[in-house]
Amino acid sequence: MSLLTLDNVTIRFGGLTAVDTVNLEVKQGEILALIGPNGAGKSTVFNLITSIYQPTEGKISLDGKALTGIPTHKIADMGITRTFQTIRLFPELSVLDNVKIGAHCRGKAGLLQAFTRLPSMKREEAEMEENAIKALEFLDLDAKKEDMAKNLSYGEQRRLEIARALVSKPKILLLDEPAAGMNPQEKVVLMEMIRRIRDTGITIFLVEHDMKLVMGISERIAVLDYGKLIAEGTPLEVRSNKAVIEAYLGS
Ligand code: ADP
Ligand code: MG
């Protein structure tokens, strides 16, 4: 069953077609990886799904509901959250507050109210705090909840970003190069956590360059090259696909 559907999606930036007539389905409960060379359009696909960009042509839908015209700040309400290719944390805030900010992107209470503690917001805030702590437990960061984000190791900071994306209980989680810059040990931990998240029923769509990680956790892989989808299949199928080897894996 398709959860997220890209239907003939194209985006042009001036003369550049960054994403070119892409048709792709992300199935409920799967781990799907999007791979391809630098500049292939992978992050742009995520920016399209999260309404940072609107497609020049085509349609994106979640659970059959079109995302066209939905503003970025409403995308989490629809059940889509993401992490970014580069870390975007508040370094001087605590680990817990960094996660709560993720919840406030979705909750009724704004960020300001979260920190000024209006009485009417107390219950909602308590609930958010509980969710934030659960998200941190899930990423094995609960013991560090009072630490400043900047004092975490690099691998922990990347996991903190995932915790923040999880707190609003998405249907689908988009991870843009989650293993970038991690050492082999951190990558093993990350893989285990991505699996754990998926096992709770959250669908995972990730962009990643580390082929060991991609081949190890994905059920399906889609390959983008110059904005076009050139292959789609199981890790085994994609690894032996001639066009993929030429465009990406061979290098
Ligand atoms: P990837 O994530 O696969 O490395 P990107 O999606 O970041 O690639 O970029 C795909 C192409 O689109 C690149 O050539 C990039 O320069 C271009 N691009 C992305 N965003 C914009 C933008 N806002 N304006 C102009 N060009 C862009
Ligand atoms: Mg990218």
UniProtKB/TrEMBL annotation:
Residues 4-251 form the ABC transporter domain. PROSITE patterns: ABC_TRANSPORTER_1, ABC_TRANSPORTER_2. Keywords: ATP-binding, Nucleotide-binding, Transport. GO terms for cellular component: plasma membrane. The keyword Nucleotide-binding applies. Gene3D superfamilies: P-loop containing nucleotide triphosphate hydrolases. One of its GO terms (molecular function) is L-phenylalanine transmembrane transporter activity. SMART domains: AAA (SM00382). One of its GO terms (biological process) is L-alanine transport. This is Branched-chain amino acid transport system ATP-binding protein. It comes from Desulfosporosinus hippei DSM 8344. The lineage of its organism: Bacteria, Bacillati, Bacillota, Clostridia, Eubacteriales.
